[in-house]
Amino acid sequence: MPTLLMIVAANLASTVVSLGLAALLGFRWLSGLVDRLVHVSIGLLLATALVHLVPESLAGGIAPQALGWTVLLGILGMFVLEKLTLIHHTHHHEGDGHDHHHGHDAHEVGRGAYPILVADAFHNFADGVVIAAAFLVDAHAGVLTALAVLAHEIPHEIGDFMILLNAGFSRRRSFAFLLLSGTSAVLGGIAGYFVLASVQALLPFALAMAAASFIYIALSDLLPELMRRSPLRESLPDVAYVFLGVGIALLAMRVDG
Fold it and tell me: By C-alpha distance, which of 48, 11, 50, 254 is closest to 150?
C-alpha cells in the first residue's frame, strides 16, 4: 500500500520536524525567526486552501453550494472548538495568580497542561485525516498539504512548549508529551486513508473541511499578529513573507503540474 505508507511517513515527518524546530526555536528564543515563519505560514495555508484544496474538492464532484456550506460549517466548527479549548487556557491562566502562595494551586496549574495535550491530540488527529485526504488525490497534493500542516504547527507547538514549561514541565518532559500527542496524526492518517478510500464520496467534503481549517487558522490565529503592526513601513517585510508563503505553495503546485 504505497499511498498508506506515504501518508504515515508524511504525518511522522510533519510531527517530528515541526516539534524539533519548535523546540529549537522556542528554547533558544529566536522570536524574530518564529515571526517570519508565522507570516510565511499565512501565505502557504491560504494558497494551499484556496488555490489547491477547494479546486480539488470541486473536481471531486462536490456541488458548488455544498462546497460553500462545507467550508462555512468547517470555519464555524473550528471557531466553536477553539472557544471550548480556550476555556481551559483561560481558566488555568487565571489560576496562576495564586500559585505562589498555595502548593495545591500550583499542582492544579500543572494538571492544567493535560487538557491542552488532549486538545492537541484531537487537532493532530484531524491534521492526519487532512493529509490522508490530500494523498488520496495525488502524491503532490499530499506533500503540499503536509508542508502547510508542518508550517502552521511550528508556531503552534512553540506556544504549547511555553504553556507546558510554565505549568512546571521540564523541557524533556514537554517534548516527550507533545511527541506522544503528535502521534495521533499518524492514527488520523491511517483512519482517514481507510475511511476515505472505501467511501470515495466523502473525499471532496474532507478536502473542503481541510480548506476550511487552513483558512480559519491563517485568518484567526496567525493574521491578527500581523495586523497589530499598523504602520505600513513596518508591515512591508511581514507582508513580503506572506507572499513568500504563497510563492512556495504555487511553486509546489507547478512542480505538481
Answer: 11
Domain range for 156 = 2-256
CB distance 133 to 210 below 8 Å: yes
Alpha-carbon distances, residue 244 vs 111, 116, 221, 248, 252 (angstroms): 40, 31, 19, 6, 12
Confidence of residue 90 (pLDDT cuts 50, 70, 90): very low
* pTM summary value: 0.76
Q: Shortest CA distance to 165 belongs to which of 112, 124, 121, 120? A: 112
Residue pointed to by grid coordinates 520536524 = 17
Residue closest to 16 by CA, chosen among 108, 135, 150, 136: 150
Cα separation, 248 vs 228, in Å, equals 25
Question: How many domains is the chain built from?
Answer: 1
The pLDDT tens digits of the residues spanning 137-154 come to: 888 889 989 998 888 888
Any residues with CB less than 8 A from the CB of 219 and at least 6 apart, and which? 46
Dmax (CA) for the chain in angstroms is 62
C-alpha distances in Å from residue 101, one per residue of 13, 66, 104, 106, 141: 43, 55, 9, 9, 53
* C-alpha span between 211 and 203 (Å, rounded): 12
Q: Which residues contact 169 (CB under 8 A, 6 or more apart)?
A: 110, 113, 177
